[in-house]
Amino acid sequence: MDSVTTYEVIRQTIMTTLISSAPVLIVALAVGLVIAFFQALTQIQEMTLTFVPKIAAIFVTLALSLPFIFSTLLQLSDRIFDLISNGGV
User: Which positions ≥6 away from 19 have C-beta within 8 Å?
Assistant: First the structure.
């Protein structure tokens, strides 16, 4: 296995990780910003107001995006297993 193949496998793994985690991270960021704006506008500084809606949104997003995450990780594992079976590793 040469260095180009190694770097390509590492690049694909990092990109797959970023793409798989993107839906949950984007929803967490959006909900956090909405809650921060709401707290700034209303002067309510309740700690549970920041965590409970964000955790609920993350769980819902995770449940809805699990098929996407699974298919993305399955594509990466298929590529890696094909590389192994072809003697590239």
Answer: 72
pLDDT of residue 44: 83
Closest by CA position to 51, among listed 37, 31, 21 = 31
For the chain, the domains span 3-85
Instruction: Convert the pLDDT of each residue in 32-47 to its tens digit.
Output: 999 999 988 988 888 8
* In the predicted structure, residue 70 carries a pLDDT above the cut 90: yes
Q: What's the CA gap between 63 and 36, in Å, rounded?
A: 24
Write out the E strands in 5-88: none
Other CB atoms within 10 Å distance of the CB of residue 28: 15
Amino acid at 56: A
Three-class SS of residue 44?
A: coil
